[in-house]
């Protein structure tokens, strides 16, 4: 199964947005400085997917960055659920919604990348023959 080039672009945008978000959270002390590492990893993955430069390593980068971001989103979802004890606020609702969507998005990215080992190789190394 070959992954559509629109899906590759969507994945790269997802990785770029989350990479920028993790870096901003680390700089603004909304998270720990340890968020810089997944932010940089997501930025590199997003750029390599956009430029199709990573070729052979695209699947490995997507899996590694996806697992890293899934762990962060899952933990933040857990922390947001604990905030519910204080009360239901707009911040709590936004956190729950955002981190739930993020966790589901990265879980689906991991599943697609894991189940189809040739998907990223064929779509990043070869041009579409239409």
Helix and strand string, N-terminal first? Answer: HHHHH
Strand portion, in percent?
under 5%
What is the CA-CA span between the terminal residues? 16 Å
Residue runs with pLDDT of under 50 for 5 or more positions: none
Task: Give a written overview of the molecule.
The protein has one domain. The two termini are 16 Å apart. It is globular, with a radius of gyration of 16 Å. The protein has 5 helices and no strands. It is 75% helix and 0% strand. Helix 1 runs antiparallel to helix 2, helix 2 crosses helix 3 and helix 3 runs antiparallel to helix 4.
Keywords:
mainly alpha; 130 residues; single chain; 75% helix
What does the secondary structure layout of this molecule look like, with pairings?
Layout: H1 5-27, H2 36-51, H3 58-83, H4 90-115, H5 119-125
Helix pairs in contact: 1-2, 2-3, 3-4
TL;DR of this structure?
The protein has five helices and no strands.
